[in-house]
Write a structure and sequence with these properties.
Double Stranded RNA Binding Domain, 1 helix, 3 strands, TTHA1013/TTHA0281-like
Length: about 80
């Protein structure tokens, strides 16, 4: 059996409790958390394997092309 290399964009956010939450936008429901970024990245690799080891055809997964992140500041009435 031939091994395939897949690349995924991982989004990492920090929640209000200080935990790092890692998400893979290309795979619905694929997310995890960790106490550190390193731990979150280790766990997201495990989560990706769990999400794709369902026996589904991997050619169905078409990763999006990551463009970037933007922040915007807006003024709102108090």
């Amino acid at each position: 059996m031939k091994d395939n290399l897949l690349n995924f964009t991982v989004l990492i956010e920090q929640d209000e409790d200080g935990m790092y939450v890692a998400k893979v936008p290309d795979i619905p429901g694929c997310y995890t958390q960790g106490n550190t970024i390193t731990q979150a990245m280790e766990r997201i690799e495990e989560a990706i394997h769990a999400c794709i080891d369902t026996g589904e055809d991997l050619t169905e997964i078409v990763p999006m092309k990551f463009i970037g992140l933007q922040q915007i500041e807006i003024k709102v009435k108090a």
